[in-house]
Amino acid sequence: MLTNKNKKQLKALANTSTHKYQIGKGAVDASVVALLNNALKAHELIKVYFNRSITSEMAKLTDEIMIATQCELVATIGHSIVLYKANLNKKDRIILN
After folding, report:
1. How crowded is the C-beta side of 67, counted as CA atoms within 13 Å?
2. Which of 24, 35, 37, 92 has the greatest number of beta carbons closer than 10 A?
3. pLDDT at 1
4. Mean model confidence pLDDT for the chain
5. Strand order across the 20-23 sheet
């Protein structure tokens, strides 16, 4: 469980992050979950952008993604979300205060 201090630290790191993924009109299926799982394993912190045509479903899709990938929501900013999942096996992992 992330504290507010952890979320603030991760949100600051996300501002400079180049690890971005986009979800279009399709639902969150197995291929999207696999892509996001691999990205979280490699980078720990990612941004996911939702196409404007599906922003009405954004909350539902965010919940589906969080359940399927076992990650935590750091922030919701406009049409995007920031996700975090610790990878303890990674050498240069993100150290939370």
Report:
1. 9
2. 37
3. 86
4. 92
5. 20-23, 45-50, 80-84, 72-77
